Amino acid sequence: MNSTLNILRKEIREMMTRSTLLPVVVIAILLGAMGSMMGGIEEAVTGAPTVGIVNDDTHGDLAAIAVGIVGNLSEVVYDGNDVDEGVTAVDEAGGVALLHVPANFTERITDGESGTIQIYWIMRGAGLLDSISSEAVNSVLWNVNRAISTHLIDANASVNSTLALNPTTRTETTIFGDKIMDGISPGTLGSMLSAQSFVVPLVMMMLIMVAGGTVISSMGMEKENKTLETLLTLPVKRGSIVTGKLVASALIGLVMAAVYMVGFNYYMTGFSASGELDMEKYDIALSALDYLLVGISLFVTLIAALALCMILGTFAKNYKSAQTLTMPISFLALVPMFMIIFKDFNTLPLAAQVLLFALPFSHPMMAMRSLMFDDYALVLGGIAYSTIFAVVAIALTVWIFKTDRLLTGRIGKKEEGRSKTLLMAISGRKR
Amino acid sequence: MSTSIDKPGAGGASGPALEVVNLIKDYGDFRALKGISFTVNEGEVFGLIGPNGAGKTTALRIISTILQITSGNVRMFGMDVAKRPHEARMILSYLPEDAGAYKNLTGNEYLAFIARFFSQSREGVARILSKGVDIADLGDRMGDKVDTYSKGMARRLLVARALMIEPRVAILDELTSGLDVINAQEIRKIVKDSSRNGTTVLLSSHNMLEVELMCDRIALINDGEIVEMGTPAELKAKHNAQNIEEVFMKVVS
Questions:
Q1: Contact A178, A374 (CB under 8 A)
Q2: Residue B9 — pLDDT band, cuts 50, 70, 90?
Q3: B158: distance to nearest CA of chain A, Å?
Q4: Where are the alpha helices (DSSP H) in A234-375?
Q5: Chain A nearest C-alpha distance from B67 (Å)
Q6: Does B29 touch chain A (CB under 8 A)?
Q7: Of the options 3.40.50.300, 3.30.230.20, 3.40.470.10, 2.60.200.30, the CATH number for the domain spanning B18-252
Q8: Above 0.90 for ipTM, yes or no?
């Protein structure tokens, strides 16, 4: 038993190192931040939807029922008779939709036809959770339909049973940024954009993880194989060593990305072939310039990510510890991936927006969707930020290569006892 | 010494090949070197010996430009290595105690990789490589991956790497560490030949016989300080010892 305890103590001591604990702490902090963010989203989802109403059927009793139900189940921020004014008011109030009840609403139903409610959706994001607000409006409209149906049955109205059960229909127009898309609901658009919502961040995340892992492992291997000291004494500038390692990893990463993108292209082709949504028709197809911007965003982010990985790589003592150090990078890639899958940048709470923008890996993940809806400011801002991040990270990496840091592994002051033991080892002193 | 490399400091000012003045190195609160000073003349084989933890490797790493100096000065053929590390790296070669080579490269590829840092021309690289292959003397195995080499073969390759560029200063930490007697003797001979051709050698070793055989002068370092320095004969006479191992024991203990 004592021997087991002895081994147990040794194993725990070996496993509980800074390099194993740090990623866990980072993950805990990030999970906490994400939890707060998602809590905010949940509150937004469960509340009554904010809508506007334009009722042109002012004398119709069925229109009055519809407006009454909407008023009871929603927060109405506009109740007037101008659709454009109403859309602006709802948009400014952060609302979901403007419901337009046409002048012939009641008349059509009593004449035996469905009454049409025109919905102007104000779509703010294409993330999976962004469509939930529209579901709240759908719920309100279901209640409108039910209330009118109940009224028709109670009044013993002379309509056929099918109409009595479903007296209302809808037509939909989705407004997303500057795009006005007739005949499409946010749900349909969202499901089409799920390709961008899901696959693009996933590909970017894999690319960053693979290329980042390559560069961190390279540093770990240099230390494990004891080749680093020799490399550092060769007449080669530190900037050249850093550049060589970064470019090699970036090239490997880009080749991998190209392979992924070929697969992705087939995926998209298959999707378009299904004919569910013609991007050209809704003016959301990407131009050559847009693709160029996506490429630039990807390139600078990849360089920034790799420079960050090299900094982490300086902590690697060997190949094994290098594998552990890829965890923070993986997580830094996973966080924006999940955030972008679930929410658009513009629909996130401010704190989450700041976090998402600050993570350089986010920008190529968001670029394609942003460019579809002409959000050039976010893409160009992201490229500028990622470029600055990359330059700073490279400068920091080169600086580390010029210090003792690579060989000694020292960051700051440590407690005397541990410090001496470590320094004995790194300075070649054997007790 | 013939060289295919345009080396800074070559044909420069006369004086010692290496001049270490009051060198101090701190790791945080821990002082690894406490102001050591010594000079090594051109073509000389100078031994730095001492017990484990004395500061030998730290000194060698500083002279090799890969650790920063806390205070003091290291000059290589008059060049301040802290101020001109890149130029210093053009004329020095450092062989760490436990150095390795890139395992996925063959012996030839590894030496060619190193040679390309010292010559821009194809002929220059070929000349350096040819010298390296001669020194390594591994025959057909030079075409095999380093991963398949025995410890002795790998060390021979690394010695070849260190000496094929005909460095003006070779810094060799535990030159024959882990090698059998035959390999160790051959490698010592290679280093001595290199020294005869003009390379200045700074050597660290725990093998006192090796030190006595190879070194023109010796400095004994203990607890970060140089406690004795001289030729093997001078030290033996001074301490009335039969060999350097005895001197070492008397001085250090």
A1: yes
A2: very low
A3: 10
A4: 238-273, 288-313, 319-342, 350-358, 362-372
A5: 5
A6: yes
A7: 3.40.50.300
A8: no
